[in-house]
């Protein structure tokens, strides 16, 4: 009995090709899903900073308010103290720029900021979104500003009021 391997080989190649395309498509769907979840407005709740062996926990729900706004390709953040200082100022801070999202790696390119030492720098964070909570962890290193720290920030999705 003579057996022709050509049809079997073709069928096997097609099956493997379909499996690879499904895996790539699933990866694109996962990326698109995380990207879609990331877009919106986020209120910073807390930050844990590790710098020079010292851990600092900052609760942003009491004395300050910060919001981060993320669209298709840009982000911006705005922060101020909730109570003005003795001079009546609320110590406003803001920045923004473009970003890239590859898998769970979110990289901000800070194009605008009030301290020029930070402008033009990129910061990569690993992000995780669960429900209405965004957690991003990464390294902020700006030699000219004397900053070299690992930071984990926890955000809550802002909804229209």
Structure description:
- The protein is about 20% helix and about 50% strand.
- The chain has one helix at about 5-40, and strands at about 40-50, 55-60, 65-70, 75-80, 95-100, 105-115, 120-130, 135-140, 145-155.
- An eight-stranded antiparallel beta barrel has the order 1-3-4-5-6-7-8-9.
- The longest helix has about 35 residues, at about 5-40.
- Residues about 20-30 have low confidence and may be disordered.
Give the SSE order as H and E letters: HEEEEEEEEE
Major beta sheet summary? 8 strands, antiparallel, barrel
**How many DSSP E strands?**
9
Please report which band the strand proportion falls in: under 5%, 5-15%, 15-25%, 25-35%, 35-45% or over 45%. Answer: over 45%
Report the C-alpha radius of gyration, rounded.
22 Å
Category from helices, strands and their pairing? alpha+beta
Compute the average pLDDT. Answer: 85
Residue share in helices?
10-25%
